[in-house]
Write a structure and sequence with these properties.
The chain has about 180 residues and is of the alpha+beta class. It is built from five helices and six strands; from the N terminus they run H-H-H-E-E-H-E-E-E-E-H. Strands 2-1-6-5-4-3 form a six-stranded mixed β-sheet, with helices on one face. The longest helix is centred in the N-terminal third of the chain and has 31 residues. The chain is globular. The termini are far apart.
Length: about 180
């Protein structure tokens, strides 16, 4: 092996080593900066969502209000009477809170299942199927999609979107039985 060939092999090995070290440094730095969700955060997000539905069921607008951030957006995706897709948006929860807190004899039961939560640092999103009952009478079903952020006071919902339909609902049997 000539001197030039040996130098080329050493140079190539040094390049590979440098590239590997650079890749390792970037990987370790990225892993150190990637926030991980703790089981406590997951449980707290679930508790916030449960509190929302408890407040609706009790007609307690103060309890419902406690789970929301100061600025909230809400959206509903549904189909109108002509079967045309519609997006309804709200930039305030005031009307919702008023409806929850206005005395009514019916109980609002929003049953959820298949709750999936994803968390990245101080941001969380949750998605679940639901069926809404007025006392024990089925009203509608769909999915709820929540976006939350972690504050000093805990997790708060800053965006809530849902779909609504009257048919095509795959409601678990135990939920249907509960409302018979």
């Amino acid at each position: 092996m000539g001197k030039r060939t040996a130098q080329m092999l050493i140079f190539t090995d040094m390049n590979r080593c440098c590239i590997f070290m650079l890749w390792l440094a970037v990987s370790v730095t990225a892993a150190a900066q990637t926030p991980t969700a703790s089981p406590a955060d997951d449980a707290q997000v679930r508790e916030v969502i449960a509190r929302l539905f408890q407040g609706m069921q009790k007609g307690d607008s103060t309890l419902v209000h406690s789970v929301f951030a100061h600025q909230v957006t809400m959206a509903t995706v549904l189909r109108d009477k002509n079967n045309t897709p519609v997006l309804q948006r709200e930039s305030s929860i005031d009307g919702f809170l008023k409806a929850v807190g206005t005395p009514h004899t019916e109980v609002w039961n929003e049953e959820i299942w298949d709750l999936k939560i994803q968390i990245d640092g101080d941001f969380a999103q949750a998605w679940c199927d639901y069926a809404f009952y007025i006392t024990n009478t089925f009203s509608h079903c769909g999915v709820d999609a929540f976006q939350l952020h972690k504050t000093k006071a805990g997790w708060k919902i800053f965006h809530l979107a849902d779909t609504r339909r009257k048919s095509g609902c795959a409601i678990p049997a135990q939920i249907e039985q509960k409302h018979k």
